[in-house]
Amino acid sequence: MIYNVAGLLTGNLGDSEQHELENVSLEIDGHSLKEINGPVRLMRTDQSVHVTAEIEAVTNGACSRCLEPATLNVVVNMEEEYSPANNDLVGKSGKSSNNVGSSDDDDYYDPALTITEQNYLDLTEGLGQALLGALPIAILCKEDCLGICPLCTVNRNIIQCSCAESSIDPRWAGLAGLTGKGAKFVD
Ligand SMILES: [Zn+2]
Ligand SMILES: [Zn+2]
Fold first, then answer.
1. CA distance 19 to 28
2. How many Å lie between the centroid of ligand 2 and the Cα of residue 65?
3. Cα–Cα distance between 102 and 88 in angstroms, integer?
């Protein structure tokens, strides 16, 4: 996921390149993302390279309801600006370099979105963050996962326990017994 963009930076505004990610894997913040696929488009803008990517990926984790292994498909549309560390290239062909050294924008420096002095654009961190942002807070093995029974702890996707059939809250079970005695009394 590292591209040499020297050609783009020395080219004309609006020049673009298209790359294809095929079955790439990525580890980020403890998440393992696999089968990363999709087109990546790099376009030369005034002072940067504009990156757009439509990415699909797969990740694994434990289902937050039943704790069984779950596979999750992630889709993300990434869009970022990558600025060159080597401003000379864009400075030469850029339409304006009058404000070099005086712009407050120079104070903003994000290493993940910086093209190296050698003109390499590394998509790894930016794409990883985009994918992380697309992950749901809770992974589910399936949308209607029944989870684990809080009373008898069976996986309710596999075993249908009878706990749920009883509408009596366990805290009231004792009272239910009293009611039973009461009923007997009425008889
Ligand atoms: Zn589940
Ligand atoms: Zn149960």
1. 22
2. 14
3. 16
Average pLDDT over residues 95-116: 62
Residue 87, pLDDT score: 72
pLDDT of residue 111: 85
Q: Which ligand is closest in space to the CA of residue 147?
A: 1
More confident residue, 86 or 15: 15
Mean pLDDT of 71-91: 86
Residue type, 170: P
Average pLDDT, the chain: 83
H/E run at residue 161 = none
| Model confidence, pTM | 0.70
Q: How far, in Å, is the centroid of ligand 2 from the Cα of 148?
A: 8
Half-sphere exposure of 24 (CA within 13 A, CB side): 21
> Which residues are CB-contacts of 114 (< 8 A; sequence separation ≥ 6)?
82, 83, 84, 85
Beta strands in the chain (DSSP E): 2-4, 16-28, 31-44, 49-62, 69-84, 114-115, 120-122
What Rg do the C-alpha atoms of the chain give, in angstroms?
Answer: 28
